[in-house]
Amino acid sequence: MGTRRLTPVVVASVLAAGVLGVRSVADAQVTRAGGLIRHDRGQSVSPVYEGWYQRPDGTIVASFGYFNRNHVEEVTIPVGPDNRVAPGPEDQGQPTYFFPRRQIGVFTVTVPDAATEVTWTLTSRGETLEIPVNLDSEYLIEPFRAAAGPSPGNGPPAVRFDPADAAFSGPAGGVVDRTVTAGTALPLDVWISDDGLGSGRDEPVLTVTWGKFRGPGPVSFEDESPDVAVEDGPEGVTGRASTTATLSEPGDYVLYAVVSDGSRQSNQCCWTNGYLRVRVGAAEDGD
């Protein structure tokens, strides 16, 4: 089975077409001419390169998302030969659980140096797709400062999973560890602070959306998008949102929170990713 190498330009053209019936990038032109085809399941998942940015210390960071061509089916691709980042270890924080349709900027990879080509490869439905990092200036993104839109200068929310922890922000986000027993509700609390510029509206908008990122079993959320209680502050707004997740099978999971200030993620600013690594232990007899 060969590997089809994608480029950000080709992927962007496929996504812009809104095509769901595309078995490969080569088929995109034919499908566009024939009209849109909706598939609920049975389609492959494409890796998507969002762009790169540089931290103040000079470190280069690449942002990736994906396009699950299914309208309904959620696809699982374990880390390994079918879901790998190279060079280095196959596991570099990529998702193994893929929600339908387009998901923007779900994880980042640190690029060793400008001369090293980093790629993310996914194999699903018999199709292997590989996307490389391109460090050309046209792929430079600014996830910490909105350059355009209704609120130039806006930045991503600062997020904590515990009020005593240091805040994190941006697409690389932060990682926190938790443990819970299988079948027991796990509290999910998020504390947010923001400049209040994101939505361009009179009233600030803060949202939190939870989902499964990795794990061997199903995850049930009390509310995947809990309401955020927002309060005005001297330097912007603050908010808090709470829900629970129940993980029914033992094992290692990652839960994923996207915290937004109302900005459009397609502009590559301004949201924050949070990752909750959860070790789920077996329930004792009688529990």
Write a structural description:
The protein is mainly β and about 290 residues long. It folds into two domains: about 5-140, no CATH class; about 160-280, Immunoglobulin-like (Sandwich), CATH 2.60.40.10. About 5% of the residues lie in helices and about 45% in strands. The chain has two helices and 18 strands. The chain has helices at about 10-15, 30-35; strands at about 5, 45-55, 60-70, 75, 85, 95-100, 100-110, 120-125, 125-130, 160, 175-180, 185-195, 205-215, 220, 230-235, 235-245, 250-260, 270-280. The strands form five sheets. Strands 10, 12, 14, 15 and 16 form a five-stranded antiparallel sheet that branches. A four-stranded mixed sheet has the order 1-9-8-5, with no helix packed on it. A four-stranded mixed sheet has the order 11-18-17-13, with no helix packed on it. A hairpin with a 2-residue loop joins β8 (about 120-125) and β9. The protein is globular, with a radius of gyration of 19 Å. The N and C termini lie far apart (about 50 Å). Residues about 15-35 have low confidence and may be disordered.
